[in-house]
Amino acid sequence: KMYRTVKATSGRQIFQPLHTLRNAEKELLPGFHQYEWQPALKNVSSSWDVGIIDGLSGWTSSVDDVPADTISRRFRYDVALVSAVKDLEEDIMEGLRERGLEDSACTSGFTVVVKESCDGMGDVSEKHGSGPPVPEKAVRFSFTIMSINIRLDDEEDAVTIFQEQKPNSELSCRPLSLMFVDESDHETLTAILGPVVAERKAMLESRLILSIGGMQRSFRFLFRGTGYDEKMVREMEGLEASGSTYVCTLCDSTRPEASKNMVLHSITRNHGENLERYEIWRTNPFSESADELRDRVKGVSAKPFMETQPTLDALHCDI
Question: Which pTM does this prediction carry?
């Protein structure tokens, strides 16, 4: 199935000697295309050709050699996004043509909207055989390019030049990181996804300069964390688990209140406030008992480490 898609996106016949195939594959992997960020990304390695990173212990440039005790492998986020945008090169040019835009005039003003997803993959342990001992659970972090818009200097409104037709298909969803970790293991998740968050934050403050259609063009990225389920949102926001008395990730309602009052149910706090509440929990400025403190912070528990986008949470939808 993957080879069908490789052939479809690259137009190449894949049945070739193995070394030719490896080289063709490497062109399709992140790390192949040259690009630059303006300004340069803060806290991110400056070598642009890094392919895959050992999730916990730093950089390796090779695609092939994986030490047996690796618990996570990932692409560098910016390198993976470059590869994803480059894959859409024909669609971008086609979109400009369809909108009647002069492609030589459209070198900046591109905005790429990225949907992020992260979820546990359940039990992946080997049932037989003698592979290396690995944790039984795995988590995958992936992203999908949802749309690309362009705003021209003299125009008010942005024009959409690419829209993903099948945003939930596995063909448009690009894995960024695979980790052998249980999604409830907050510390390990923090260790692996912390650098991903740092890279994403750096990209928000910069512009990608990439050659599309033979011209250097500049892209900015918007990230939407809409692919997380409720369990993962709570994990990332540092909230009590789903069995908590406090039903929602973004309001103070308790279960009994929510069941009595379906109408006046609304979002009453944001991610920043969740962080502030964590600080109250940690410092206990009013020297309260555990129960009083818990009542004050209403559902915040451990340290939030990954701010998702302020979208409607799963339980507001249920209610």
Answer: 0.79
